[in-house]
């Protein structure tokens, strides 16, 4: 009798979980999207550091890594898919660096 009750209880717990399972597979946790966003921001700072030290190879490799992270984030997190990523981010950071270098050269920063 206990086995039957235990089986029914187990069945009652498992069936709703299976019924609510996502047919598209497991969802990416929100923290993964936030982690990727923090990594992109960190490597943007690293790219600025490479640019300030006039290390073109380091800057280029960092920008490629940012593009890879942005592409991965766009695939895993659909809410970021429409945001500028990859090459557009590279253009933005290069323009920001030019402006910062100009202001630094004039002694405004």
Please count the beta strands (DSSP E, at least 2 residues each). Answer: 0
Share of β-strand residues: under 5%
What is the molecular shape?
elongated
Number of helices: 4
Instruction: Spell the H/E element sequence.
Output: HHHH
* Helix fraction by DSSP (H/I, runs of at least 4): over 70%
**End-to-end span in angstroms?**
80 Å
Structural class: mainly alpha
Low-pLDDT regions: 18-23
Would you write up a description of this structure?
With 109 residues, this protein is an all-alpha fold. The protein has one domain. The chain is 74% helix and 0% strand. α2 packs antiparallel against α3. It is elongated. The chain starts with a helix and ends with a helix. About 6% of the residues have low confidence.
Question: Can you describe this structure in just a few lines?
Answer:
This protein has 109 residues and is an all-alpha fold. It is built from four helices and no strands.
Q: What key attributes describe this structure?
A:
109 residues, mainly alpha, 4 helices, elongated
Topology, please?
Layout: H1 2-19, H2 30-52, H3 56-76, H4 87-105
């Amino acid at each position: 009798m206990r086995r039957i009750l235990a089986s029914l209880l187990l069945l009652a717990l498992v069936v709703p979980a299976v019924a609510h399972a996502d047919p598209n597979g497991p969802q990416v946790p929100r923290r993964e999207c936030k982690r990727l966003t923090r990594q992109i921001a960190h490597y943007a700072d690293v790219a600025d550091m490479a640019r300030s030290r006039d290390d073109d190879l380091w800057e280029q490799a960092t920008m490629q890594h940012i593009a890879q992270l942005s592409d991965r984030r766009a695939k895993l997190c659909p809410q970021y898919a429409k945001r500028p990523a990859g090459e557009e981010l590279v253009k933005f950071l290069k323009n920001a660096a030019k402006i910062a270098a100009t202001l630094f050269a004039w002694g405004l920063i």
